TrEMBL record:
Pfam families: OEP. The lineage of its organism: Bacteria, Pseudomonadati, Bacteroidota, Sphingobacteriia, Sphingobacteriales. One of its GO terms (cellular component) is efflux pump complex. InterPro entries: OMP_efflux, TolC-like. Belongs to the outer membrane factor (OMF) (TC 1.B.17) family. This is Outer membrane protein TolC. GO terms for molecular function: efflux transmembrane transporter activity; porin activity. Its main location: membrane. Residues 1-22 form the signal peptide.
Amino acid sequence: MKHLLIIMSLALGLGYTGYAQQAPQTHSFSLADCINYAYQHQDSVKNAQLDVQSAEYKVKETIGIGLPQINGSATFQDFIKPPVSVGPNFLSGQPIDPKARLVTFPFGPIKYNNTYSLQATQLLFSGTFIVGLQAVKTFKELSERSLIRSKIETNVNVTKAYYQVLVSGEQIKLLDANIAQLKQQFEQTAQRNKQGFVEKIDVDRLDVQYNNLVTNRENVVRALVLYNQMLKFQMGMPVEDELLLTDKLESINIAAQVGPNTVDTTFYRNRIEYKLLQTNITLNELDVKSRKAEFLPTFAFNAGIAGVFQENQTKFLYDNVYYNSYIGLSLNIPIFSGGQRLNRLRQTQISVLKAKNDLSNAANGFKLMANAANVTYLNSLQSLNNQKRSRELAQEVLRVAKIKYEQGVGSSVEVTQAQTELENADNQYIQALYTALISKVDADKAYARIN
């Protein structure tokens, strides 16, 4: 019983430790913190980092082709039915008659044969090997640039998700302000209704508006939870963890990149997609060199040593060993392949031309994308400024309408309409704010300002 209690205690302790290790954590992150976290935990970035590591091993594998290759082998043969040895009869003492029937020799293959051998080769010259060394280094560069592209995409996705959470938080603030002032107005109107100064319909109208605002706020709060989880997903963070954002909308300079976009006309060369296409051209050019190297001979050194045990009875098999060894050179000269090598070369040359065409087309496309992103960015800034002004005007209209209503020179309908216009202005401002932030991120990406 005592042992059972000890085992149960240990099990409960281990279970508690595992639970503690899996307990949700709380993080307070700025945008930069979120991006750095994503660089370490986002699966796409981690896979790209693994590709870089794999490329390093590929380089070492290719280098190994030019190093000595050593192999060992062992064979054992038991001739259950040994083959016979036949040939011209030279044992009779008579001149050999080449037209005579062949005879079976009294000696033949040994029944048991056990051979151990060691072979070594060293490549002395190979054009394809030399080009291959250059190609794998370029391949590693390609994987490194792919890692940069993954980081840029992650940066963009995290930034957009972060801004979505901030904008939703701002929307809740505006709704809270509207709910607070509408609640106060509702209470004042209800009191005046009790005193007989306003009609019941005025109270009901405000009650409907108030309920609608509360419902909208609840919807936005639920959406904010989802946006927060989306941000954690983009970061590679467990959705169960709590994430608090420390950056504020006021600290974001949305108009920071207005103006300089038209100065640098070669910005597209800094885009990682452009650099990846350049690397692809280099790989295709190296492929051409490799096809040309197929026309060159290959030269190698080889050597070997073997030990042979032979006997007709197993008990004597390992009494004696017979060694043999050799060294040599091998030269392989390609002479004629029916035009295969030449046509493979021509195909790779065409691939280079196509890759260069793709690069030229991509450069033109990057310029177009940047121009479109800049136009969208400028339009969104103008729309945001207009919506700010519209919101300020809507607030002023509501303030005047309330004063007129309180003084008896205006109607409750005017106040209700002004309140509705303010709510619409707030919604349009929030949409314009989000659009401006997202267009800023797209413009930064288009002009290669995200690294």
